[in-house]
Amino acid sequence: MNEEFLEQLEEWHEEDEFEEIVDAITEIPEEERDYALISHLGRALNNLERYEEAVEQFLSIQEEGKDDPLWHYRIGLAYYYLDRYEDARRAFEVADHLEPGDEDTLEFLEWIRNKTAPKPAEKSGAAVSYTDPDVLNFWDDSAPEADKYVSAPLTDELIESVEEALVFKLPASYIQAMKVHNGGIPRNRKFPIEDGAQDFIEISGILGIGRDKKKSLCGSLGSRFMIENGGYPEVGVVICDCPSPSEVVMLDYRSSGNDGEPEVIHVDKANDYKITRLAANFEAFISGLE
């Protein structure tokens, strides 16, 4: 493509002359438009708030754009303003993976979280209180696999050493839960989600804080093992395995930083490492299990 023409498109963009961009590119026969031109066209349509048309243009170069963070960002923006928040979330998460730390991408992800977070009044079920003696009814210690998850009682020294090994500060609610019962298999193991393909995700167990059991955070089959051997994203700590060996539940520290309050996400390796946000924090995740 003529470099002077591309420079003209950039100049029009800087001058907010988006109609000029659309008119100039649409005069070119479709079969002669390359990736760069269609990217300019889609961006201009976004700026004109013609989001449906923008999505159509971006999808026409989807294969070429799969490794381009700008392609994912721009189609994510269009999806966002079409109120297609799950599509937007997926696009921005890929953009963040390809170009970590971009402020605009992180801002959109935060807006999506705010828009899709359940309202307190809509939340079903009572929150689990780990100071309540009945909390032990949360766990199914009679399950055949339970012993593989339940680690030795916690000490402050063990918590500190595990956090140091993981390089993440564990949530206070998670630590509190593990002080009462250090890992195990919950009686309720399904977490409802709004996804066209499925109604819930299912966990097998919750990893305890320790090293003594294989299925503990620093055990031989723990968080680091699953991330490194499964290729899961380096966004935090695996806290639950799932019946499907290609799925995990993780604490996600991308927005909070390593010392902040992480969100809880589900990662599906078999579905191109699709990330689904489950809850704003560990306590909300536990309370939502059915």
Automatic annotation (TrEMBL):
Sequence ranges assigned to domain Knr4/Smi1-like in this UniProt record: 153-288
UniProt keyword annotation of rRNA-binding present: no
Keywords attached to this entry: TPR repeat
Protein name: Tetratricopeptide repeat protein
InterPro entries in alphabetical order: Knr4/Smi1-like_dom, Knr4/Smi1-like_sf, TPR-like_helical_dom_sf, TPR_rpt
TPR repeat feature ranges: 69-102
